[in-house]
């Protein structure tokens, strides 16, 4: 889930940010039809900047646009979840390994700050909890200092948050959540210590036991 990199300056930016939040937070669930006139009134803008925002969200794969200005939130698909998981199994451990090799003092400070107060997400996370989780992982992959890798993981995380929320509809239980908290702590420690192999190993386990890895069978039903 991306946070705005700069202050929102246009009505289209405002619409994009608000609609995107509604989609990723579950207020606009997968498959739901978007009444553009109603949504524009809710946001407090006209339909023109809203349509511009929807075109941006379509490019990200979050929205489908019909020929007659119909709009719908993209459905969740087992195949896309599989593809995201396969990509993350390769790229996230690479980013963690590189972060352990290349992290700066500022990177270490960002990782520690994002870890502060981070807890495994509950069954019905709010938007801020999703953002906090994303801040932590963003602090790690930005510490890789590989711009192509960072851009790729930004895109993967944008799509993966919807599947993460879907998986959380089934409660993991306190033991599974405690394990995730420990993985977050260990991942930060190995990167800060400069242990590239250890960081990659912890990240691999983190992904293999992740929410995305649990959700595939439910999407096939």
TrEMBL record:
Keywords: DNA-binding, Transcription, Transcription regulation. Residues 9-76 form the HTH gntR-type domain. InterPro entries: GntR_C (IPR011711), TF_FadR/GntR_C (IPR008920), Tscrpt_reg_HTH_GntR (IPR000524), WH-like_DNA-bd_sf (IPR036388), WH_DNA-bd_sf (IPR036390). The keyword Transcription regulation applies. GO terms for molecular function: DNA binding; DNA-binding transcription factor activity. Transmembrane segments: none annotated. This is GntR family transcriptional regulator.
């Amino acid at each position: 889930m991306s946070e705005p990199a700069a202050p929102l300056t246009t009505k289209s930016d405002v619409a994009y940010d608000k609609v995107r939040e509604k989609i990723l937070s579950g207020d606009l669930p997968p498959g739901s039809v978007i009444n553009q006139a109603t949504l524009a009134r809710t946001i407090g803008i006209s339909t023109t900047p809203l349509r511009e925002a929807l075109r941006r969200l379509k490019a990200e794969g979050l929205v489908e646009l019909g020929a007659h200005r119909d709009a719908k939130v993209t459905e969740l698909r087992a195949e896309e979840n599989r593809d995201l998981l396969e990509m993350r199994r390769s790229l996230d451990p690479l980013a963690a390994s590189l972060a352990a090799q290349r992290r700066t003092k500022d990177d270490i400070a960002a990782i520690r700050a994002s870890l502060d107060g981070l807890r495994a997400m509950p069954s019905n996370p709010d938007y801020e909890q999703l953002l906090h989780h994303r801040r932590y992982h963003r602090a790690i992959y930005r510490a890789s200092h590989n711009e192509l890798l960072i851009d790729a993981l930004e895109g993967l995380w944008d799509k993966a948050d919807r599947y993460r929320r879907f998986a959380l509809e089934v409660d993991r239980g306190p033991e599974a959540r405690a394990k995730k908290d420990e993985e977050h702590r260990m991942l930060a420690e190995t990167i800060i210590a400069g242990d590239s192999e250890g960081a990659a190993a912890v990240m691999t386990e983190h992904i293999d036991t992740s929410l995305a890895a649990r959700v595939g069978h439910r999407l096939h039903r």
